[in-house]
């Protein structure tokens, strides 16, 4: 079952290391002429809602947000993901990390451990997203077993429009404890259902919407 990770020293070190890697990736891409991006530690991690399932490794989730594209069309998902993987591998290798792995909805790094203190393994998961007037969209790579026939498409994140405004409203009314409790309950609910279609960011969106609906609508 999931629980909130309490070792603040470890969490601080992990965020520092991972955010340094991600800032280097942002600079690497933005200094090129292909696209302009921003990178954020997404919902759960950014709001200190980092969970761990029993004693398993911890994944720190980031959104790589495409703000503009220049040499690549936003609808060319294959070219976008291949370009970002190439830049990510350059940054990772420069810092002594192995190449990343491409999965359906994220790009994942190898697991790392600190030599001193808490030895819990951790890794970085990066989702490629963009936002328009309809909300957030996440790049999906549907693998077919034949690379040439793989499908790339943008998947809508349900009810993600105006998410930040809802977070502000909830915090202003001192209701964040409701978010903390509900988020953990949802993580464990999907775990018990063996449901792998609800990553942390989607659960975070669901949680914010449900708390907001309960108090403001």
Structural overview:
This protein has helices at 8-30, 43-46, 77-94, 163-172, 176-192, 200-216; strands at residues 2-4, 35-41, 51-53, 58-69, 101-102, 107-108, 122-132, 135-142, 151-156. The longest helix is centred in the N-terminal third of the chain and has 23 residues, at 8-30. It is an alpha+beta fold. It has a single domain, classed as Beta Polymerase, domain 2 (2-Layer Sandwich). The radius of gyration is 18 Å and the shape is globular. It is built from six helices and nine strands; from the N terminus they run E-H-E-H-E-E-H-E-E-E-E-E-H-H-H. The strands form two sheets. Strands 2, 4, 5, 6, 7, 8 and 9 form a seven-stranded mixed sheet that branches.
Amount of helix: 40-55%
Q: How would you classify the helix and strand content by structural class?
A: alpha+beta
Number of helices: 6
- What percentage of amino acids are in beta strands? 15-25%
Rg (C-alpha, Å)? 18 Å
Net shape: globular
Please sum up the structure shown.
The protein contains six helices and nine strands; from the N terminus they run E-H-E-H-E-E-H-E-E-E-E-E-H-H-H. With 217 residues, the chain is of the alpha+beta class.
